[in-house]
Design brief:
Elements: E1 4-8, E2 19-22, E3 40-41, H1 49-55, H2 62-74, H3 81-87, E4 92-96, H4 105-117
Parallel strand pairs: 1-4, 2-3, 2-4
Helix pairs in contact: 2-4
Length: 120
């Protein structure tokens, strides 16, 4: 069974990461592109700049952030196809740059993808 994982891009790549997808709109600071070990940079699924600036990793805004972000993702579902297709045969690791490990776009995106994947 394949797994959808989340990992900070600053963590080392591992063989069981599978298909590694950077999901941030901006390239993470301090990471060279030739050393990032990513298979795809899917910046199209990152939260909008407006949403990201509104949220600012405020725990009190987390639930509303997820709702707003999921509404944005509803309009971008086609961009998720490489992730959904890869999950059928391989692990997928969503990579993010935030220092915040719990309330970040990777966790919100993972929940969204799992809800789609479970309905396919």
């Amino acid at each position: 069974m394949t797994e959808l994982k989340i990992k900070r891009i600053y963590q080392s790549a591992a063989p069981d990461d599978g298909f590694r997808v950077l999901i941030d709109g901006l390239w993470p600071r301090g990471i060279r592109k030739d050393e990032a070990h990513i298979d795809l940079w899917l910046k199209e699924v990152a939260p909008s700049t407006q949403l990201r600036q509104w949220f600012q990793h405020d725990p009190e805004k987390w639930l509303e952030f997820c709702q707003r972000y999921h509404r944005e993702l509803d309009l971008k579902r086609d961009y998720l196809r490489p992730i959904l297709d890869s999950l059928k045969v391989n692990n997928v690791t969503l990579l993010y740059g935030s220092r915040e490990e719990k309330i970040n776009n990777a966790n919100a995106l993972r929940d969204y993808i799992l809800s789609l994947y479970n309905h396919e």
